[in-house]
Amino acid sequence: MSKTVTVVGGGLAGTEAAWQLAQRGVRVRLFEMRPVRPTPAHVTDRLAELVCSNSMGSTLPDRALGILKNEMLTLGSFVVRTAFKHALPAGQALAVGRDEFAEEITARISGHPHIELVRQEVTDIPDGPTILATGPLTSDCLTQAVQSLTGRYLYFYDAMAPIVTFESIDRTIAFKRNRWDKSSSAGTDEGDYLNCPLNQAQYEAFVDALLAAPRIELSGADKELERYFEGCMPIEALAQRGKDALAYGPMRPVGLRNPSTGQRPHAVVQLRQDNVAGTLYNLVGFQTNVKWGAQAEILRMIPGLKHAEFVRLGQMHRNTFINSPTLLRATLQFKQRDNLFFAGQITGTEGYVGSALGGLLAGINAARLLDDQPLMQLPRASMSGALFHYITNAAAADFQPMKANMGLLPPLPQPVRNKRQRYATYADRAKQALDSYLCQMNFTPLD
Ligand SMILES: Cc1cc2nc3c(=O)[nH]c(=O)nc-3n(C[C@H](O)[C@H](O)[C@H](O)COP(=O)(O)OP(=O)(O)OC[C@H]3O[C@@H](n4cnc5c(N)ncnc54)[C@H](O)[C@@H]3O)c2cc1C
Question: Fewest beta carbons less than 10 Å away: which of 30, 159, 299, 323?
Answer without folding.
Answer: 323
